[in-house]
Write a structure and sequence with these properties.
single chain, 386 residues, mainly alpha, Growth Hormone, Chain: A
Length: 386
């Protein structure tokens, strides 16, 4: 009975941590661009700010992952990352000048970008130890994103974009407090060795997986970095932008459960190819959208793009990366998914938006998605032929 109570308590803690962490994500993905827009920054400047984080994430994710695996202190690393975010956001409050804003945001991203992959590593380990399904815990991140997208949109509509940083501080502080209650699920993992990690990451299949993953990640980052600004250009209010975030986050929840129950019946790479194909459709629809609410409707495709891609890619990662390197493998995943792809989407996307327009930007994202779809199909047939 005590074990059941303890397990139930930790599930609640992990769900609360997912909720708070993804509440912060909705600020970063949806409302930070509007905050920068309200300060008079151009699309190119906004894209540049968003490209700083991915560049730093290449270092910060790898460092956080290796430290977590080496020290077996994943939960403490997560708490320190939240603390660093709070300090950076506090420094951000009085800043208006673009150069200083970029510098402080760089510090914020240094601590923010490793959080979700580290949290997913912790949740995967905890789910295995407690014999719970990962989606049943992870879905609370989607709920946090969805609910806060609406609530924060209403709050910012009433009180203005100046409230943005304060809301972000509140969500990160909540996450920090909750993270202190998490149990140590990493203690029994085998000893970490750098040579073993390198041997895993340099395998041909691992390299191909990460390369194709990065190609599909570009349209995802284009959508994340420029959707809210594109909607604002088409006359959307903060509440409508929030509705788009709500539509995307709510739509992924049933997909998480369906994949958890039936996903094992299907091979991974065809599913990943399907997600890439649907990303192409999503980008093409965004390229012709003109009404603010049409953007909201298109975001429901998040279910069959990110919803499928994320869970299936994690399943692939678990089969590729041994448990003792799980945090480092998750970090490598995020370096490609958020870091390298984010740099491409932020710099190339910002330039294209300013010079060639919204249509060209989203159609380029569609081309990346198609290339990723074909890459996963090639990988599938190549492995089947062996």
């Amino acid at each position: 009975m005590n074990d059941e109570i303890k397990t139930g308590g930790q599930v609640t803690v992990l769900r609360a941590l997912q909720f708070a962490s993804y509440a912060t994500m909705v600020m970063i993905a949806t409302y930070f661009p509007l905050y920068f827009y309200s300060l008079g920054y151009s699309k190119l400047q906004i894209g540049a700010i968003y490209s700083v984080g991915p560049v730093l994430s290449i270092v910060s994710n790898l460092l956080a992952g290796v430290v977590s695996d080496k020290t077996k202190s994943l939960r403490r690393v997560i708490s320190l990352l939240y603390l660093g975010q709070i300090l950076a956001l506090a420094l951000l409050l009085p800043v208006r000048e673009f150069g200083v804003m970029s510098l402080v945001m760089a510090g914020f991203y240094l601590f923010q970008t490793p959080v979700n992959p580290m949290l997913d590593s912790l949740t995967l380990l905890a789910a295995e130890r407690m014999r719970r399904s990962f989606p049943s815990i992870r879905m609370f991140g989607s709920l946090g994103y969805a609910l806060c997208a609406v609530l924060f949109g209403i709050a910012l509509k009433v009180w203005g974009s100046g409230l943005t940083i304060y809301l972000a501080l509140g969500t990160v502080l909540t996450a920090l407090i909750v993270s202190l209650l998490v149990a140590d699920f990493q203690a029994s993992v085998r000893k970490f060795e750098f040579r073993g990690l390198w041997n895993v990451l340099r395998r041909r299949d691992t390299v191909i997986f990460f390369v194709v993953l990065g190609v599909v990640a570009v349209p995802h980052r284009v959508n994340e970095g420029f959707l809210s600004v594109a909607m604002r250009d088409h006359g959307a209010s903060d509440s409508v932008v929030g509705a788009a975030s709500l539509a995307s986050s709510i739509s992924e929840i049933p997909i998480f459960f369906l994949l958890a129950r039936y996903g094992h019946r299907f091979k991974e790479f065809p599913l990943l190819a399907l997600a890439g194909f649907m990303y192409m459709i999503r980008m093409l629809l965004l390229s012709v959208a003109v009404h603010p609410w049409s953007f909201v409707a298109i975001q429901t495709l998040h279910s069959v793009t990110f919803g499928i891609f994320y869970i299936v890619a994690l399943r692939c990662l678990q089969s590729i990366i041994p448990e003792e390197f799980r945090s480092s493998g998750q970090a490598a995943f995020t370096i490609v998914w958020g870091g390298i792809a984010g740099v491409i989407a932020g710099t190339l996307g910002g330039w294209m938006y300013d010079t060639l327009g919204l249509t060209a930007l989203f159609r380029t994202g569609a081309a990346f998605a198609l290339a990723g779809c074909l890459g996963f199909l090639y990988f599938h047939f190549r492995r089947s032929a062996v």
